[in-house]
Design brief:
Distance between the termini: 36 Å
Shape: globular
Strand content: 5-15%
Order of helices and strands: EHEHEHEHEHEHHE
Number of helices: 7
CATH architecture: 3-Layer(aba) Sandwich
């Protein structure tokens, strides 16, 4: 039996973990990564057909290991791993260039490099690229300048890749606010429990994968199946 294969970065927690679980339940073969090996192993415990490759997506050797693990065909690449930057979030006037450089390495350079590495396998499968964006890419929020700039750049890369690869579906998706560790780091000491759980966003992503929408940028709130929103 041939299983559809997905590569999901940042799969040890949050939206990456929730999507990995959902795709595994659907019978997909998964290759997943995260920086913390122990957390990654714990996240995928019980998931069948799942290969964990721990490492930092900003590391070229790690990206090469991921490309090797996926094999000759890749149905889905999910660029989910993200770097917020310093916490508490500084104003742009106080953002150190080295911190901005790291944010861009993780949020912009690494996703493009992974697409480049996986492109032959994606083309072999007529696959899909799903880049996780943010409303900070299009809105001006104080303190979010570095992260927002990275996500805005990712949106543009996604749009150009879609034009250059019309045989693939290439999406940027803004998942909306979620109760995740990264979002908590943006608001240290505050209660963010009112934000939706990452699992609530998964139906929208699955609807996008199951549907036939053209490549482009979408908001998860616009993609939720009608029955899931009732």
């Amino acid at each position: 039996m041939t299983f559809r294969t997905a590569l999901i970065t940042g799969a040890s927690r949050g939206l990456g973990r929730a999507l990995a679980t959902a795709l595994s339940d659907r019978g997909w073969r998964l290759v997943v990564d995260a920086r913390d090996p122990a957390r990654l192993d714990a996240a995928i415990a019980g998931l069948e057909r799942t290969t964990a490759v721990a490492g930092d997506v900003a590391d070229p050797q790690h990206r090469a290991a991921l490309a090797e693990a996926i094999g000759p065909r890749l149905d889905l690449l999910v660029n989910n791993a993200s770097e917020l930057g310093p916490s508490p979030l500084p104003a742009l006037a106080d953002l150190h260039p080295d911190d901005l450089r790291h944010v861009l390495d993780v949020n912009v350079v690494a996703p493009l490099a992974l697409v480049q590495a996986a492109l032959p396998a994606l083309r072999a499968a007529g696959g899909t690229v799903l880049d996780i964006s943010s409303d900070a890419a299009v809105e001006a929020y104080a303190g979010w300048g570095g992260y927002g700039a990275g996500k805005a750049a990712l949106d543009q890369l996604t749009a150009v890749l879609a034009v250059e690869n019309p045989d693939l579906r290439i999406y940027a998706v803004d998942p909306g606010d979620m109760a995740t560790e990264m979002h908590q780091a943006a608001f240290p000491g505050e209660d963010i429990s009112d934000r939706p759980a990452p699992e609530t966003v998964v139906p929208a992503l699955l609807a996008l994968l199951d549907g036939s929408l053209p490549s482009g940028r979408y908001r998860a709130a616009e993609l939720v199946p009608a029955e899931a929103s009732r």
